[in-house]
Write a structure and sequence with these properties.
2 domains; about 30% helix; alpha+beta; 7 strands; 60s Ribosomal Protein L30, Chain: A; rod-shaped; two-stranded antiparallel ribbon; five-stranded mixed sheet
């Protein structure tokens, strides 16, 4: 009689695979590297799209962080290449504008008629007229091609600053004869306002222009020669952000006791400036 053998019992155990707890945090390192690479890419793209002055300032910062770096700043308008102009570095702004002026095609013809001086108010930039009229048509508030070129260059430089701007118009002492009552007061104010409009078209913010003033012949540049054509001028003053001695701009000697600007009227605004024949010296 044969003995029946029982087949062996085979037990199969399946192990369920599990995820390691939090992968050890390795994914965070990879993500941080990715974010850093993206930030570097955006910085490079920003630099490629920035102006030459920004690139020079950044290069200067790495060469001398304590020197160049502290001259840079931004205002609240989102302009990232602003330079805060204080009394101690107003001469630096003057030199910078002078260098840009030298690049103008007709600068040799203009250089004796653009004058820049550092005063108690700030940097004063004056466009001095010639006998025939260099920056404005004679006896008119219509700006010439040369005048527009200079004002556009100034606007490109000054719109990057947080400093307030004052724009003034001046005439010589020759009476402006006009049958409709248009005088040197209106002419000086209109020329200053023309300069303001060019600034606005070139990106200078409305809030940056603090005042537009017309003085007629009340502040002659050459008092001993009241009919000198250089008395006819448009002045742009870059005010200090922090005036010397902490004096408020309204209290500064250059602003105190000045003649008032001619009040604008609807009739005066609508009047066209008379031709050069009406007032050849204005």
């Amino acid at each position: 009689m044969s003995t029946q053998q029982t087949p062996p019992i085979i037990v199969m155990v399946k192990k369920k695979g599990g995820h390691a707890a939090h992968h050890g945090g390795a994914w965070k390192v990879a993500y941080a590297d990715f974010v850093t690479a993206m930030m570097a890419l955006f910085i490079v793209l920003w630099l490629l799209n920035s102006g030459e002055k920004v690139k020079q300032a950044i290069a200067g910062y790495f060469k001398d962080p304590a020197g160049t770096g502290k001259l840079m700043g931004t205002n609240m308008n989102g302009k990232g290449d602003s330079v805060v102009v204080k009394p101690e570095n107003m001469d630096q702004l003057k030199d910078q504008i002078q260098q840009e002026m030298n690049k103008l095609p007709k600068f040799e013809q203009l250089k004796n008629n653009v004058e820049m001086t550092v005063t108690t108010e700030g940097l004063r930039i004056e466009l001095l007229e010639t006998e025939k009229g260099m920056f404005f048509d004679s006896g008119s508030s219509k700006i010439s091609a040369s005048g527009e070129d200079v004002l556009k260059l100034l606007a490109d430089q000054l719109k990057q600053l947080p400093n307030k701007l004052l724009i003034e118009g001046h005439t010589d002492a020759k009476p402006y004869t006009s049958p409709n009552g248009y005088t040197n007061w209106e002419l000086s104010a209109d020329r200053a306002n023309t300069a303001r409009r060019v600034f606005m078209e070139c990106g200078v913010g409305q809030e940056q222009v603090a005042q537009v003033r017309g003085f007629a012949d009340r502040q002659l540049r050459k008092r001993d020669d009241p009919l000198n054509p250089s008395n006819r001028r448009v002045s742009v003053i870059v005010q200090y952000t922090v005036p010397p001695g902490g004096i408020k701009p309204a209290e500064m000697p250059g602003l105190a006791g000045q003649a008032p600007t001619a009040p604008p009227t609807a009739a005066g605004a609508a009047q066209a400036a008379p031709s050069a024949k009406t007032a050849p010296g204005a």
